[in-house]
Design a protein that fits this description.
The complex is a heterodimer of chains A (110) and B (117).
Chain A lengths: L3 E3 L4 E4 L4 E7 L6 E7 L6 E7 L2 E5 L2 E6 L4 E6 L8 E8 L5 E3 L3 E6 L1
Chain B lengths: L3 E4 L2 E4 L5 E7 L6 E7 L5 E8 L5 E2 L8 E7 L2 E6 L8 E11 L2 E6 L3 E5 L1
Parallel strand pairs in B: 2-11
Antiparallel strand pairs in B: 1-3, 3-8, 4-5, 4-9, 5-6, 7-8, 9-10, 9-11
The chains are: A mainly beta (110), B mainly beta (117).
């Protein structure tokens, strides 16, 4: 079983839609959770960072962590064509080793 | 957020030559940097962990003599692909770990596309 599972998609939504991206994980010791956005042939860009359980909001992005279910989510409100990218979830225990999902490809159609 | 600069963005070289990729943390000190390789439409594959002032730790299956990593200062790590061959063509990305103000995360460089002819 992989440490982190993420549906690769692809996911296609109309502009303005709410997008929900998810990851599940197997190790309850993970404490730090991240979401990255990666455009083609670019390095991943850190979007959201969350410690332990709870919600965090930043503009159109909301990250949720449910440690009891070992489930994390990223919500994108009012999606824009510029959001079209691959979104990666990542997590770590203490920062010595990071575990990544395989990434979800998102296309926002104008 | 923390800025990681990676250079060059792309490089084309002949088979048998060596290529050096630089990764710099611009506004913070990075005691630990990570080097990844990424194939098209695939996730990141960790190659090695680079620690300032000590030898890098390589993942299983990664050739230490082919992928030389040097982390001589708190702001610079380099990856040298020695005697490159076409199968080494890939997208290489570095990242630096940030541990400050309660943040424990990774910041990535912009990546280097290596094409070996």
């Amino acid at each position: 079983q992989k440490e982190v599972e993420q549906d690769p998609g692809p996911l296609s939504v109309p502009e303005g839609a709410i997008v929900s991206l998810n990851c599940t994980y197997s190790n309850s010791a993970f404490q730090y959770f991240m979401w990255y956005r990666q455009y083609s042939r670019k390095g991943p860009e850190l979007l959201m960072y969350t410690y332990s359980s709870g919600n965090k909001e930043d503009g159109r992005f909301t990250a949720q962590v449910d440690k009891s279910s070992k489930y994390i989510s990223l919500f994108i409100r009012d999606s824009q064509p510029s959001d079209s990218a691959t979104f990666l979830c990542a997590m770590t225990f203490t920062g010595n080793q990071f575990y990544f999902g395989t990434g979800t490809s998102l296309t926002v159609i104008p | 957020g923390a800025v990681v600069s990676q250079h060059p963005s792309w490089v084309i070289c002949k088979s048998g030559t060596s290529v050096k990729i630089e990764c710099r943390s611009l506004d913070f000190q990075a005691t630990t940097m990570f080097w990844y390789r990424q194939f098209p439409k695939q996730s990141l594959m960790l190659m090695a962990t680079s620690n300032e002032g000590s030898k890098a730790t390589y993942e299983q299956g990664v050739e230490k003599d082919k992928f030389l990593i040097n982390h001589a200062s708190l702001t610079l790590s380099t990856l040298t692909v020695t005697s490159a061959h076409p199968e080494d063509s890939s997208f290489y990305i570095c990242s630096a770990r940030v541990r400050e103000q309660g943040v424990n995360g990774l910041f990535f460089g912009s990546g280097t596309q290596l094409s070996v002819l």
